Amino acid sequence: MLSIAVRSIIALLLLLPGSTVPTAAAQDSPTAAPLSVRGIVLDGSGVRWFATDGEGLIRYHNGTFRYLSEQDGLLSRFVRTIQTGKNGDLLLTTARGIMRYDGIRFTTLPEPGTVLPDAPEFLKRSKNDDRWFGAKDGAYRFDGTTLHYVAFPIDSADITERRARPGRIRSEYAVYSVLKDKSGNIWFGTEQRGVLRYDGRSFRWFREKGLSDGAVRTIFQDRSGVLWFGNNAEGLFRYDGTTLRNITEEQGLGNPEFKKGLKGKEGTLARVWTITEDRAGTLWVGTIDAGLWSYRNGVFTNYTMKDGLPANAVQSLTLDPDGRLWIGTGNGICIYDGKKFSPFIIPPR
């Protein structure tokens, strides 16, 4: 079990604006500085969007790139998450708040300041097309119009600690990932308290096998219904509805050095940030320090910069309509077609 101090440190680790640049320039000129890509989304119009850490939102369509930042109405150039909304608009989490973009203008979504007294009853009204965002000690549910705050059950020991030290900033229950599974259960990945499930009746915490020893950065459900949790210290977890397994531990792919001194290490599967599945049923797992892993028929294969990745920090994964895997890293994007990794070069702004 990690100490509170170390666990807190682990969690913390965690063209002109609006102008366009033609593809030809992109192919001939590499980016001037590393481009950290946190999310990749393809909308209903065939436009691809890239959420970046420091360069705002990037639009790509028909061979043309466009950078969007504060001058265009974005709250911050640090865009942490991106997803499509009910009406095809974009929903963004930035360093300064939650926003919606309808293709013309950005709108800030006001964050509610009250805590609902009965979260389970409120969650029963959640619909499959609701969108979710992380919040302190809970989550925000967006119904297409308004953000609603949902409070989590807090451990009695944490309540006692907060009362004893009221001035201390606490974020153990901060949400890093949310998934509504095929059965309607809602899963929340937290910073230091594991995974919380709401099944329509009650809450249940999952913290075994080290799941609460690091931030749960991603939650994914594969085609067979199995849930996968990506933890930023303890690695990859599998839950089949009955048994929770620490796959990283079972495979001997952990990184004790990181838990002791916060040092990354190649060849490990300890710091998982993103997960997806391809058409063939292969599970793809991105780590923030050891590249990309594939998992099929019980066999893990590791891909790094030596294989063509632009960086070993893999932050986002998504499949396109042709089945190609788009990989967002700490140094740009590449595409895997099943045979090789090819760079997708985004020109500097």
What is the structure about, briefly put?
This protein has one domain: YVTN repeat-like/Quinoprotein amine dehydrogenase (Methylamine Dehydrogenase, Chain H, 7 Propeller), CATH 2.130.10.
Q: What fraction of the residues are assigned to beta strands by DSSP? A: 35-45%
Q: Which strands sit side by side, in order, in the main sheet?
A: 1-5-4-3-2
Number of helices: 6
The name CATH uses for the topology is: Methylamine Dehydrogenase, Chain H
Summarize model confidence as the mean pLDDT: 86
Largest sheet: 5 strands, antiparallel
**Structural domain count:** 1
**Based on the structure given, which CATH architecture is correct?**
7 Propeller
**Weakly predicted, low-confidence segments:** 1-31
Q: What level of helicity do the residues show?
A: 10-25%
Name of the CATH class:
Mainly Beta
CATH superfamily, called what?
YVTN repeat-like/Quinoprotein amine dehydrogenase
Helix and strand layout, with pairings?
Blueprint: H1 4-13, E1 20-22, H2 23-28, E2 37-42, E3 48-52, E4 57-61, E5 64-68, E6 79-84, E7 90-94, E8 97-101, E9 106-108, H3 119-123, E10 131-135, E11 138-142, E12 147-151, H4 156-164, E13 175-180, E14 186-190, E15 195-198, E16 203-206, E17 216-221, E18 227-231, E19 235-239, E20 244-246, H5 247-251, H6 256-261, E21 272-277, E22 283-287, E23 292-296, E24 299-303, E25 314-319, E26 325-329, E27 332-336, E28 341-344
Antiparallel strand pairs: 1-5, 2-3, 3-4, 4-5, 6-7, 7-8, 8-9, 10-11, 11-12, 13-14, 14-15, 15-16, 17-18, 18-19, 19-20, 21-22, 22-23, 23-24, 25-26, 26-27, 27-28
